Amino acid sequence: MDVRQRSPLTAAITLAALVFLFLPLALVVLFSFHKTGGLSFPFTGFSLRWYRDTFGSFEFREALKNSAIVAVCVSVVTLLLGTLAAYGISRSSSRLRAPVGLLFFLPITLPGLFVGIAMLVFLRRVGFELSLLTVAIAHFVYTFPYFLLIAKATLDRLDPALEEAAADLGASPFKVFRKVTLPQVWPILVGATSLAFALSFDEFIITFFVIGSDSTLPMFIWSSLRRTIDPSINVISTMLMLITLLLWVFAFVFTLRAGRRRTPAVDPILGEGA
Amino acid sequence: MSHHLVLEDVTHRYGREVAVDQVSLAIEEGELVTLLGPSGCGKTTLLRIVAGFVRPSEGRVLLEGRDVTRTAAYRRPVNMVFQRSTLFPHLDVFENVAFGLRIAGVPRGEVAGRVTEALALVRLHGFDRRRAHELSGGQLQRVALARALVNRPKVLLLDEPLSALDLKIRLEMEAELRRVHRETGATFVYVTHDQREALALSDRLVVLNDGRVEQIGTPDEIYRTPASPFAARFVGDANVIPVEVVGADGSSATVALGELRLATRRPDGVGTGPAWLVVRPEVVRLAQNEAAGVGGIVRDLAFRGTGFSYRVDVPGLPDPIKAEMSAETAPPVDVGSDVRVTWDPAACGLLPRDATRD
User: Fold this and answer.
1) Best exposed site among A180, B267, B275, B356 by fewest CB in 10 Å?
2) B130 touches chain A (CB under 8 A)
3) Most A CBs within 10 Å, among B71, B85, B150, B170, to test the A interface
4) What pTM, to 2 d.p., does this model score?
5) For the stretch B50-89, what's the b/e string if a residue is b when 16 or more beta carbons lie within 10 angstroms of its beta carbon?
6) Are residues B196 and B247 in the same domain?
7) What span, in angstroms and rounded, lies between the C-alpha atoms of A74 and A147?
């Protein structure tokens, strides 16, 4: 018998918390299908008209395209530079290894407002015109620490003896990375890249400072809110949520699968994790 | 200069710590040489210096007369079997063994043949498509052995490859290693802290202590005539007893142990004065109701299958005397009994002792 108490009160609190978390989201989704322009109850019936309207809007399509361009560029650059940085820090024997690693993570702790203002001032000072490029640069600063955190943790967990064994078998440092390190960590890197994509795709605060005259999806929602309030906002929010959710699920499943693939690396002799 | 692998005055420091201190060695082609010593004696560092993972602070490493001290690990024609399994988890057995050949650009057709041959050598026929997690500890080390030997290294380095295995598998693998060494004729440098394993496997032993070479010789030489108290204790688990040489005459000497006078063989370089008497446990006899030898009290008794091993406290001696007695020749002596301890003087060794140091 399960010794843990199953109190109805615990169940009620859990349920209330879940409702509190997800009911607003559910309402946003629900009203995106509203027949009329109303954003609150009573709900008068289903319709796809707001979806038709939204997808028919040039501004929306433009914002979606911009968001996608920025997110793709940011995630590719994050993947490349983040992997190099994580590998470098993880394999370094320098005494500065820990402090340098910490410096790279630091932007995570900074408020978006601060990063946004700092990026704006800096990018203007060095002569950048505000554009999607400045957005991408600022997003990179934001996504890089998250990627690095995951990638470095993964690389740190790998058994360094495997890389040593590969070098012993004649593999140059580059071949060691390509033939031994990368095959073991790439699913996690792909997962972390899709997180970077998701982070960039729905980033608002930093974007707000460095966007210039272009628009991204979150910016489009914000500016629409200031003009009219109708269910097309709900449509865009639902789309944004759906894309982000799919990416997180993809990242999660990929990382999980990689975790399962890694289990065989547990040393059957010593029973230690590799 | 026809030696196969030569270490010249190799010294290595980690910060201020001296891990390897002025080690010189010459290893012949086809030899199985063991570096033996307790943990922290520098044996693994020495092996890693040969592999190229560690660059020595001083000294040179010569392979077939060529100085490889500054050559990176991946450019050295030596391969290593590690203490723990280092099979690549994302590759199956075949691809693990083929790894070095593929890196070296060996033609595809030849790779298959050589991998099959290497797996047959370690008796893992038909394991090609297995992965690391489907293999036992012993099998993993066999694959590691095949993966190293398939490259036909000039020297095969083995870093305590059996230490993580159960005793039964370990004994089996020792026999396998001897066979593989015989069949390939390759040069093996083997690191272990297990003196039994070292004696069983090696053509020659290098006994290391505190980063220095204590003695180099065949297992038989080191076991019978240890050159230092450390070698005597570590290799033969011998009793090393401080005595005074009171008479030296040609090849025999008389030593004083308390009131007792014992005749023994006198090696070169031992004159009168303080010395160490080396007595291996299996030549020690314990007797009751006798007057010979020195008196002591049995402190510990352990059954060893073929016999009993004892530790006997003898007044005036710093360490208890260890004795191994066959179960057939003598009935066990209980713990706490008064016994007389004797040994065959002809089977003892004598080593010089610096009374001011020891």
Assistant:
1) B356
2) no
3) B85
4) 0.77
5) bbbbbebeebebbbeeeebbebebbebebbbbbbbbbbbb
6) no
7) 11
Q: Is residue B270 part of a domain?
A: yes
Contact A165 B151 (CB under 8 A): no
Closest-CA residue in chain A for B163?
A269
B151 — contact with chain A (CB < 8 Å)? yes
Please give the Cα distance from A201 to A193 (Å, whole number). Answer: 12
pLDDT tens by residue, A40-56: 677 777 777 778 877 87
Could you tell me which of B64, B90, B85 has the C-alpha nearest to residue B148? Answer: B85
Is the pLDDT at A272 greater than 60, yes or no?
A: no
State how far the Cα of A59 lies from the Cα of A223, in Å rounded to an integer.
Answer: 11
Give bridge partners of residue B192 from the DSSP assignment.
B36
CATH architecture for residues A57-265: Orthogonal Bundle (1.10)
B191/B247 same-domain check: no
B347: in domain:
yes
Q: What is the mean pLDDT of chain B?
A: 87
**Can you give the residue range of the structural domain that contains B268?**
238-352
Over the stretch B280-308, which tens digit does the pLDDT of each residue have?
A: 888 888 887 777 778 888 888 888 878 88
The mean per-residue pLDDT over the stretch B18-46 comes to: 91
Spell out which residues of chain B touch residue A159, defining contact as CB-CB under 8 Å: 84, 86
Indicate whether B232 belongs to any domain: no
Chain segment B142-170, per-residue pLDDT in tens:
999 999 999 989 999 999 999 888 888 88
Q: How many domains does chain B have?
A: 2
Q: Where are the domains of chain A?
A: 57-265
| Whole-complex ipTM | 0.81
How many Å apart are CA A119 and CA A121, to the nearest integer? 6
Question: Does residue B73 share a domain with residue B207?
Answer: yes
What pLDDT, on a 0 to 100 scale, did the predictor assign at position A73? Answer: 93
Same structural domain for residues B332 and B255?
yes
